[in-house]
Here is the input.
Amino acid sequence: MSKQNKDKQPHYSGHRQRLRERFVSSGADALQDYELIELLLFMALPRRDVKPLAKTLLKTFGSLPELMSAKHHELMKIEGISENTATAIKTVTAIAHRTIKQELRQKPILNNWTRLMDYARSTMVHEKKEHFRIIFLNKKNEMIEDEIQGSGTVDHTPAYPREIMKRALELGATALILIHNHPSGDPTPSPADIEMTNAIIEAAKPFEIIIHDHIIIARNGHTSFRNEGLI
Here is the structure.
């Protein structure tokens, strides 16, 4: 490249190239969180210095997981984030979630519990409202389907045992894992959580459907009803 052409290059072009080379040669662990965000933004914003924007995103949302879990409209509130850029960020999140979900389908869930917890945390821990998720399993304890059965407020999610059983029978499920999140950050089961779980267990008995566990996901950890002796 001639000196004249070099002079025409944006001041950040060299930085972009060095960052790409470091990622390729040394891997993601060699980069800080904001630098990984930069790499993503390079593709969405090819004609802009994106380092300040990457740092702004991290500062606004607090951490990389919270940034990647942010809603589309929340991302677009940030100056410099267009609909296309927000979509690029959410696409990466969707790919990560789908990858883990497909891994879960490849062998019995009970033999892949750590990965299930990774999936539950990545999809639910940063939600601002409660969501009630059900993992439907077959006789081999393989995942048939994973569905959000209900969404509620910051501290309550309605769950209807009859509707859950109806869906389980439609899918031919013989076992379920119940999962819901606590936006408060505390994974301690509430009396309502325990009552709801017992109602689902009772509704499942006539159909010989097993409730393997009920997991509460929160920022400060998770609670297993099975481990706590609540099931």
